[in-house]
Specification:
- The chain is α+β, with helices and mostly antiparallel strands and 306 residues long.
- The protein has one domain (4-286): Carbon-nitrogen hydrolase (Nitrilase/N-carbamoyl-D-aminoacid amidohydrolase), CATH 3.60.110.10.
- It is 23% helix and 28% strand.
- The chain has five helices and 17 strands.
- It has helices at 19-35, 70-82, 167-175, 195-216, 274-281; strands at residues 4-11, 40-42, 85-95, 98-107, 112-117, 123-124, 127-128, 149-151, 154-158, 180-185, 188-189, 220-224, 226-229, 239-242, 246-248, 254-256, 264-271.
- The strands form four sheets. A six-stranded mixed β-sheet has the order 5-4-3-2-1-17. Strands 8-9-10-12-15-16 form a six-stranded mixed β-sheet, covered by helices on one side.
- Helix 1 packs parallel to helix 2 and helix 3 (167-175) packs parallel to helix 4 (195-216).
- It is globular, with a radius of gyration of 19 Å.
- The mean pLDDT is 95.
Amino acid sequence: MNNTFIAAVIQQPISGNEKSVNLSETEQHIRDAVYQGAELIVLQELHATRYVCQIEDTDVFDLAEPLDGVTAQLIGALAEELDVVIVMSGFERRAAGLYHNTAQVFDGDQGRVGLYRKMHIPDDPGFYEKFYFTPGDAESSKLNGFEPVQTRLGKLGILICWDQWYPEAARLMALAGAECLIYPTAIGWDPNDDDDEQNRQRDAWLTIQRGHAIANGLPVLVANRTGYEPSPTDDSDGIEFWGSSFITGPQGEYLLEPSIEAEGALFAQIDLGRSEQVRRVWPFLRDRRVDAYQNMNRRWLDDDHS
């Protein structure tokens, strides 16, 4: 496995739900990334269509695909042809009435080498994901659903969007041996929020993920969509996705600075070997008080701790 490689995150506006159009643009971005030397390419959350969760509509389920659907077939074929690792995110139809927000990892001619089903599912105005997605199966894995994917470039800790607010998810991926944390994302502003509120939200989002890099001594890669997507109904004013895809090193330092409006393949060089050096200086894993964390699996602690 290489310790050092070029990674690209794809930041792409989505104009509609015509998959062939969106995937054609994504394919071009992937080819551009490989032409410029990328060995790892990360696509944004639900990249084949617009962000469909602005409303609750049963017809939206028609956009879901099985794991080996047309979107995965295209991405898998590109990974094989171009001999690279690609992380994609899609709307998975697992069975009738059972759907997931699922990332798949393709590694060259090995095909799909792993997947991750989003564990934390939001339910907020404009982000009605609980209507569409079932959380990943924690009970099906000895690692409680947070299991890194082994690739030629190392173990990738794949998490998805809302997962990025939870230090527990990042920590469990790190404890399971992840060598970097990767977040396909679709997040943006309510256009009615004022500039100060929008800046606070974006800054919080950047800060929490840089914190995951620091706390775990790992690189973090984030691919978010950009551009405005109107609501399918008149109930809201849509979402202005804030882009800002970025890559950090294991001390939270920007290797790729976030940009709201940039489009296409955005690059940084990743050195997985730095994590070893950083963790020697900042040995947070060594000093964890695992004997004192028994209550971490509780929703809330009552006053009497019963």
